[in-house]
Amino acid sequence: MGLLDKLRGELVDIVEWIDDTNHTLVWRFPRYHNQIKNGAQLIVRPGQTAVFVHRGELADVFEPGHYELTTDNLPILGTLQGWKHGFESPFKSEVYFVRTTQITDLKWGTPNPIMLRDPDFGPIRLRAFGTYTLKAVEPKALLKELVGTDSDFSSDEINELMRSIISEAFATMLGKSQIAALDLAANYRALSGDLREAAVERVDDEYGLDIPQLFIVNISLPEEVEKALDTRSSMGVIGDMSRFQQFQMGKAMTAAAENPAGGGASEGMGLGMGFAMANQMFRGAGQAGPGMPAPPPPPGAVAWHIAVGGETQGPFTAQQLSQGIAAGQVTADSMVWSAGMPAWTTAGQVPALASQFAATPPPPPPAK
Q: What b/e sequence results for 208-225 when a residue is b if at least 16 CB atoms lie within 10 Å of its CB, and e otherwise?
């Protein structure tokens, strides 16, 4: 390379931005005293816009392309500079590159629950969160309203403002929609579209930004309300609560019988479960309405009470007690009591019951 070529190379600048970030919105080209030489090359890549600023005033804007900076393509800057006899070199100007492609994976959410009046639950609180994308559509408005003199402006610096705008628009939209909380999930797509339009109205002209996409990912009730709904749903799935209780009691009795290591505790649990199930069965047969206590035995009949795990079970009729003895749920050592007895007594010592605990006969002798 000759000396002349070398000197020419030093006189020609290349003004460009090779972006290696994902969230930078605006980047200022670094120049010593902001001086740009005559014939400088300006390269604006796809997804970028270059804006010249002179002494705080916005000048020429360049779309993607390759430009040689001359008086012809810098008319506004030439007017601001006061060029009377063609292009002056070097000249002072700031060059800002603005990203015009979408910035994705931005998140929004309600910082506090939104109070609403719901037709099903009354006053409730709702939270919501989602994602959105951001794009610069009017570089001059963006530079004027948000960037100022920053040399590097990223989406993180505006994310808090965007979340506030979207959250406010969401609260207003949800209050006007009057959609029941249980029907919100079926309307996520429509609500997302309405929310995007409301948010864009706030940022397009004022800040020169667009929100190409906005999604509502979830709208949730408070945790305690969700638990109550889960309980209510479970009860609806169960259906007949009386039959479900019988089923649960039967499972508990089976588990107790299969765990002989449980000792007296498991025996007591099985005894209590068995008699509770017997009460349920008698109520189901018409002796008492659902949810009503078991009626006392008919006049003249003996009402028996049984001590199970430190609690009193009963009253039981003589027939119910006999069924418990036959099922092995009441043993000779079970504590029982009925009116007229001075104190709790083991069932094997009560004359009216002792005969039901007769010793099991031994097996017959083998046939000859």
A: bbbbeebbbeebbbeeee
Q: Are 55 and 80 in contact (CB under 8 A)?
A: yes
pTM over 0.70: no
Within 10 Å of residue 239's Cβ, how many Cβ atoms?
Answer: 9
Q: Look-up: residue for tokens 């043993």?
A: 331
Pairing assessment for the beta strands 114-118 and 122-136 based on DSSP bridges: antiparallel
pLDDT in tens, 196-211: 999 999 898 889 999 9
pLDDT one-digit tens code per residue, 63-93: 999 998 877 777 777 776 666 555 556 777 8
In this structure, the dihedral spanned by the alpha carbons of residues 257, 262, 263 and 269, taken in order and rounded to 10 degrees, is -60
CA distance 331 to 2: 116
Chain position carrying tokens 């092995």: 328
Query: Residue 96 CB: number of other CB atoms within 10 A?
Result: 24
Containing 76, the helix (H) or strand (E) segment is helix 75-81
Residues 6+ away with beta carbon under 8 Å from 54 = 77, 80, 81, 92, 93, 94
Contact (CB, 8 A) for 170 and 128: yes
User: Encoding tokens for residue 364?
Assistant: 């017959």
What is each CA distance from 107 to 7, 127, 195, 206, 213, in whole angstroms? 51, 14, 14, 21, 12
Q: Where are the alpha helices (DSSP H) in 239-317?
A: 241-257, 263-282
**Other Cβ atoms closer than 10 A to 108:** 24
What distance in Å separates the CA atoms of residue 148 and residue 56, rounded to the nearest whole number?
9
Of 281, 317, 280, nearest in space to 299 by CA: 317
Strand-by-strand arrangement of the 304-308 sheet:
311-316, 304-308, 335-338, 345-346
Bridge partners (DSSP) listed for residue 123 = 117
Query: Which pLDDT score, from 0 to 100, does residue 6 have?
Result: 44
